[in-house]
Q: What sequence folds into this?
């Protein structure tokens, strides 16, 4: 009854406000979740350092604007480039040497890379929270149909959709995408067919890390607090989003991101007393989805590579 009372007492404008916030948050989760699902689709490996790559991207943007006084639009471009380079460095140092090793070894290496980035950020930048610089064009509030919306909330879904369209075009309609799909099926046979496996995997990490950087920039504007541990919970939620949608499936990662984002915001809207448990929503949804559909909503059964 409490649920229906909340709906009855909520005005149309208030509901629209919550929907905008939910779509915005879901778009952020979707962007970051794509990086998880791309790496898994190629290597059947979870890049647990992905959330910390998001954290490093926030610091890149922060210092580019505050310490080097680079215009924000140039800083964002530089941040995307530096984050893509960081992703390749992690792949070459932590994952490539173990490519023929058991999956458990790669998993341990991924967790180690995550801890390394967190402690490196804590050493270099201190654990003191920092505030992401304001970008007036994106931080300002605008009124749409009587709803006060931060401009970035309108930008995030547009950027997510455009990124998804570009990514799907690359994967489905280019030679690089064809090679990526071949490697995802069986990289040993792909190597025999003349595909440069190392190059394709590096490109995958570049694309995933670049999307993580875009998500990090928008996350920093929307939620300005920056700390060395800030990537842990968003990274975990985005991993859950990828699993819910069907890890390895790009569209599934986007679907999972929107489910989590909308669910979190609407739970707080309808059940304010449960706002302290909003993070638990992701785990509850994960358990329910995996109980009824272990491969995720859009996932397909796959055979483990050995």
A:
């Amino acid at each position: 009854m409490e649920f229906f009372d909340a709906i009855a007492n909520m005005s149309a404008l208030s509901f629209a406000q919550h929907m905008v916030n939910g779509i915005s948050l879901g778009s952020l989760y979707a962007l970051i979740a794509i990086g998880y699902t791309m790496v898994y689709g190629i290597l059947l490996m979870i890049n647990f350092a992905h959330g910390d790559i998001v954290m490093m991207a926030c610091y890149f943007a922060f210092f580019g604007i505050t310490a080097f006084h680079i215009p924000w639009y140039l800083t964002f471009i530089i941040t995307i480039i530096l984050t893509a380079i960081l992703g390749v460095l992690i792949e070459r140092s932590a994952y490539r040497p173990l490519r023929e090793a058991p999956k458990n070894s790669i998993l341990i290496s991924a967790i180690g890379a995550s801890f390394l980035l967190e402690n490196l950020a804590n050493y270099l930048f201190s654990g003191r929270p920092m505030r992401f610089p304001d970008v007036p064009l994106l931080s300002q509030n605008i009124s749409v149909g009587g709803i006060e919306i931060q401009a970035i909330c309108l930008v995030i879904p547009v950027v997510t959709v455009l990124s998804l369209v570009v990514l799907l075009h690359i994967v489905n309609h280019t030679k690089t995408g064809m090679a990526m799909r071949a490697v995802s099926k069986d990289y040993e046979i792909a190597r025999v067919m003349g595909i440069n496996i190392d190059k394709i995997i590096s490109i995958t990490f570049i694309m995933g890390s670049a999307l993580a950087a875009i998500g990090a920039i928008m996350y920093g504007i929307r939620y300005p607090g920056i700390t060395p541990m800030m990537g842990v919970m968003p990274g975990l939620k985005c991993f859950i989003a990828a699993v819910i949608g069907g890890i390895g499936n790009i569209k599934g990662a986007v679907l999972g991101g929107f489910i989590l984002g909308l669910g979190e915001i609407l739970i707080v809207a309808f059940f304010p007393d449960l706002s302290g448990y909003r993070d638990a929503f992701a785990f509850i949804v994960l358990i329910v989805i995996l109980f009824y559909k272990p491969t995720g909503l859009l996932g397909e059964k796959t055979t483990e590579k050995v």
Residues 50 and 235 are 7 Å apart (CA to CA). The chain has a mean pLDDT of 88.
